[in-house]
Amino acid sequence: MRTPVSDYLDEVLHACDADDGEVADYIPELAKADPDRFGIAVATVDGEVYSAGAVDVEFSIQSISKPFTYALAIADQGLEGVLEHIDVEPSGDAFNEISLEPSTGRPRNPMINAGAIAAHAMVAGDDADTRTSRIIELYSRLAGRELSVDEAVFDSELGSADRNMAIAYMLRTVDRLDDDPPDVVRGYTRQCSVSVTAVDLARMAAVLAANGVAPDGTKILDTAVTRQVLSVMASCGMYDAAGDWLTTVGIPAKSGVAGGLIGVLPGQVGIAVFSPRLDRHGNSARGVRVFERLSRDMGMHMMEGTEAGRSAVRAASEHDDELRVYEVAGDLRFVEAERVLRELTGEPEGDRLVVIDLHRVHRINDVARRMLLEGIRRLHLDGHPVRLVDPEDVLPDPHAGEGYVPEVFDDAKAAIKG
Ligand code: GLU
């Protein structure tokens, strides 16, 4: 069978193909880009990649590097340390605005150049080269292949980096930059000149979607780091169109002036589009259309909320005086665990055996685990012996408090027999 997902992406590619917008030309090398290139790549958190169009063409990552460098700065310095130097408020300004928060002297967020240059300088490294190598190493691990700098783009951009240089000197005057401004701008420019394809970017985005876990199970970034990065992408990722983007598309995103655009749907997929013509905000014009379409078609707006599993729990053996079996199914988070507890509240006090069958549950998050254990503790206090069916060990060490640990069985029959 040919997967319908790629066919769907082909269809989106054609539907969003128009030639409005202009290729960025303030960096001479970018002006040479073929404006008609257009590709979409979608990577799942477990490493499957679907694509359509020009997804193997290399282009410079530009500002899409910013969230990843910010992640590394936090991993190196801790969140508090980074927040002291870079705020997380949307600025509404253009990406290269020469401005700082008047009261604190901090750049407003790490997605505009002032904040991104400061974040670059906060990455650990004995010298500017080590810092830059560590940054490119992280991008490579996230993309799953070795990435390198496009030297032509780098030279071209460094030759026209007066504005970024001004920003770096400004940061230095307010003690937000310890290092030599030209060194930092050089490193920052190298980070922006890393060559990627849409597939690379989709893979990098998918690691953010997976709480920092690569498809092979390696934990590349801490969960707290990815949460911070995605929050900032959601509020500040789309230049001065961030509010419009959040309401219409509702996917944490970051765009770059070379025409790349990534979106991250937490827990699900990383998406990347490449198309060099930019709209008036500096975002890929076709890229924005693709995301609007995907968000609408696939219900990806994060404020839409995922539906809670309706039949998370069901009481079987209804009329049995001796025992009651509660069958639970699906992943358990707060909402599903609440349903389970609600069902358990129907259990009158007494010594009737309660079997909680978890064999159709695959994952229980921390809050759901605590809720379930508390439910078990209360059943126990009400006089019930409780047995668990948990062949996959989804609820390991089920210490329910007050020294009570329910017996665990591999199947319901065994649990009922005892
Ligand atoms: N390297 C570019 C700059 O600093 C990145 C701009 C962008 O992609 O928004 O001007």
Question: Explain this structure to me?
Answer:
With about 425 residues, the protein is of the alpha+beta class. The protein has helices at about 5-15, 65-75, 80-85, 115-120, 130-145, 150-160, 160-175, 180-190, 200-210, 225-235, 240-250, 285-295, 335-345, 365-380, 410-415; strands at about 20-25, 40-45, 50-55, 60, 195, 255, 260-265, 270-275, 275-280, 315, 325-330, 355-360, 385-390, 405-410. The strands form 4 sheets. A 5-stranded antiparallel sheet has the order 3-2-8-7-6. A 5-stranded mixed sheet has the order 10-11-12-13-14. The chain has a two-stranded antiparallel ribbon with strand order 1-9. The protein is elongated. About 50% of the residues are buried. The model has no long low-confidence stretch (mean pLDDT about 95). Glutamic acid binds next to loops.
Q: Main traits of this protein?
A:
2 domains; 40% helix; alpha+beta; binds glutamic acid; Beta-lactamase
What strand line-up does the widest sheet have? Answer: 3-2-8-7-6
Percent of residues in helices comes to 40-55%
Largest sheet: 5 strands, antiparallel
**Average pLDDT figure:** 93
Termini, distance in Å? 47 Å
Number of H- or I-type helical stretches: 15
Per DSSP, what share of the residues sits in E-state strands of 2 or more residues?
5-15%
The shape, in one word, is elongated
Q: CATH first level of the largest domain: which class? A: Alpha Beta
CATH T-level topology of the largest domain:
Beta-lactamase
Superfamily at the CATH H level of the largest domain?
DD-peptidase/beta-lactamase superfamily
Reported CATH architecture of the largest domain: 3-Layer(aba) Sandwich
Structural class: alpha+beta
Any idea what the radius of gyration is?
26 Å
Number of strands: 14
Query: Would you list the SSEs in sequence order as H and E?
Result: HEEEEHHHHHHHEHHHEEEEHEEHEHEEH
Ligand inventory: glutamic acid
Low-confidence stretches: none
Overall tally of domains: 2
